């Protein structure tokens, strides 16, 4: 090649590298953010399942409060008030993001109403193999991100990707002893 051709092509490789690195960085950042969103969704759905298991096994006002703490902090606590609960499983997650719905009123030991029944949440009529009634099954539903309190995913770099709200995650289980 002649000196004249080399002089004209000087810097072209640097510009090509800069363009490719910019595109590659955008692709990697997109993959990282998608992975973070998937991980947070998996954490929320796992928290909803764990809270539903705990609340359905102990179908009591204390069990409901403890299940809310489990969904938010990863530990079943008697109270989520104050700093004693620790850090939430995900940034920004709080007990207002967790709704526990029960088909019947729950009362404490003194008989005082502590958790009211959720309208529209019905029991299931169970049937035996021969078609006869086998009793009713009361369902408890845990919803993470109910309407008005949805959990918002916040990306590492909001300029590259907007934040968004996850759809509500609901888990229903049969209440023990009901």
Architecture blueprint of SSEs:
Blueprint: H1 3-9, H2 12-57, H3 61-73, E1 98-101, E2 106-107, E3 113-115, E4 124-127, E5 133-137, E6 139-144, E7 152-153, E8 164-165, E9 169-174
Helix pairs in contact: 2-3
Brief synopsis:
With 178 residues, this protein is α+β, with helices and mostly antiparallel strands. It has 3 helices and 9 strands, in the order αααβββββββββ.
List keywords for this structure.
178 residues; alpha+beta; three-stranded antiparallel β-sheet; 3 helices; 37% helix; elongated
Description:
This protein is an alpha+beta fold and 178 residues long. It has one domain. Helix content is 37%, strand content 19%. The chain contains three helices and nine strands. Helix 2 (12-57) runs antiparallel to helix 3.
Count of runs of 4 or more consecutive helical residues: 3
The number of domains:
1
Rounded mean pLDDT score: 81
What are the secondary-structure elements, in order, as H or E?
A: HHHEEEEEEEEE
Oligomeric state of shown chains: single chain
Backbone structural class: alpha+beta
Estimated radius of gyration: 26 Å
Strand percentage, roughly? 15-25%
**Which regions are unreliable across 5 or more consecutive residues at pLDDT < 50?**
none
Distance between the ends: 88 Å
Main beta-sheet strand count, sense and barrel state: 3 strands, antiparallel
- The main sheet orders its strands as 1-6-9
> What does the overall shape look like?
elongated
Q: How much helicity do the residues have?
A: 25-40%
Total strand count, please? 9
